[in-house]
């Protein structure tokens, strides 16, 4: 059993991470379960830099293996914004409604064919000494709708449409979203490396 700290307090992200990391192989702990965990400032300029910061700083502080991720939305018409500022695009961290409203305002005059966007996710595993051991990334492409639709998901999911399904992430069944999402794609890239690592003598 491999003891692993999932470096996030975001309950929605924890659900997706835990679905991809079966409990029979991994002993998983969220930061909410660890009283002495720290808040790591996300000062990186890229998703991969922020994922590495969150993994290594938390790992050194706790003296444990930490898997951290950083993810967000990049909109082509906004030259990649909101990017690493996705969770705090409107000013306050985690205010999904305000973030979505700002995104719609910024894209108000942009025609549908130019509202292309991508969700990005980067994951990073740090050993207890703060050394990066595995990194992986995943991307999922779509388009930003002109109004929100669906009650599932979180973040920009009510606006992010998967063209092949003609549905937003917030409208898709969780099983389908798990197969397509940027986070799931990153974890699928990550898991073979983790399996090799824990099988080493």
From TrEMBL:
<dbReference type="Pfam" id="PF01725">
    <property type="entry name" value="Ham1p_like"/>
</dbReference>
<feature type="binding site">
    <location>
        <position position="41"/>
    </location>
    <ligand>
        <name>Mg(2+)</name>
    </ligand>
</feature>
<comment type="function">
    <text>Pyrophosphatase that catalyzes the hydrolysis of nucleoside triphosphates to their monophosphate derivatives, with a high preference for the non-canonical purine nucleotides XTP (xanthosine triphosphate), dITP (deoxyinosine triphosphate) and ITP. Seems to function as a house-cleaning enzyme that removes non-canonical purine nucleotides from the nucleotide pool, thus preventing their incorporation into DNA/RNA and avoiding chromosomal lesions.</text>
</comment>
<comment type="subunit">
    <text>Homodimer.</text>
</comment>
<feature type="binding site">
    <location>
        <position position="177"/>
    </location>
    <ligand>
        <name>substrate</name>
    </ligand>
</feature>
<dbReference type="InterPro" id="IPR002637">
    <property type="entry name" value="RdgB/HAM1"/>
</dbReference>
<dbReference type="GO" id="GO:0036220">
    <property type="term" value="F:ITP diphosphatase activity"/>
</dbReference>
<comment type="similarity">
    <text>Belongs to the HAM1 NTPase family.</text>
</comment>
<feature type="binding site">
    <location>
        <position position="70"/>
    </location>
    <ligand>
        <name>Mg(2+)</name>
    </ligand>
</feature>
<dbReference type="GO" id="GO:0036222">
    <property type="term" value="F:XTP diphosphatase activity"/>
</dbReference>
<dbReference type="GO" id="GO:0009117">
    <property type="term" value="P:nucleotide metabolic process"/>
</dbReference>
<feature type="binding site">
    <location>
        <begin position="182"/>
        <end position="183"/>
    </location>
    <ligand>
        <name>substrate</name>
    </ligand>
</feature>
<dbReference type="GO" id="GO:0046872">
    <property type="term" value="F:metal ion binding"/>
</dbReference>
<keyword id="KW-0378">Hydrolase</keyword>
<keyword id="KW-0460">Magnesium</keyword>
<keyword id="KW-0479">Metal-binding</keyword>
<protein>
    <recommendedName>
        <fullName>dITP/XTP pyrophosphatase</fullName>
        <ecNumber>3.6.1.66</ecNumber>
    </recommendedName>
</protein>
<feature type="binding site">
    <location>
        <position position="71"/>
    </location>
    <ligand>
        <name>substrate</name>
    </ligand>
</feature>
<feature type="binding site">
    <location>
        <begin position="154"/>
        <end position="157"/>
    </location>
    <ligand>
        <name>substrate</name>
    </ligand>
</feature>
<feature type="active site" description="Proton acceptor">
    <location>
        <position position="70"/>
    </location>
</feature>
<feature type="binding site">
    <location>
        <begin position="8"/>
        <end position="13"/>
    </location>
    <ligand>
        <name>substrate</name>
    </ligand>
</feature>
<keyword id="KW-0546">Nucleotide metabolism</keyword>
<dbReference type="InterPro" id="IPR020922">
    <property type="entry name" value="dITP/XTP_pyrophosphatase"/>
</dbReference>
<dbReference type="GO" id="GO:0000166">
    <property type="term" value="F:nucleotide binding"/>
</dbReference>
<dbReference type="InterPro" id="IPR029001">
    <property type="entry name" value="ITPase-like_fam"/>
</dbReference>
<dbReference type="GO" id="GO:0009146">
    <property type="term" value="P:purine nucleoside triphosphate catabolic process"/>
</dbReference>
<dbReference type="GO" id="GO:0017111">
    <property type="term" value="F:ribonucleoside triphosphate phosphatase activity"/>
</dbReference>
<keyword id="KW-0547">Nucleotide-binding</keyword>
<dbReference type="GO" id="GO:0035870">
    <property type="term" value="F:dITP diphosphatase activity"/>
</dbReference>
<dbReference type="GO" id="GO:0005829">
    <property type="term" value="C:cytosol"/>
</dbReference>
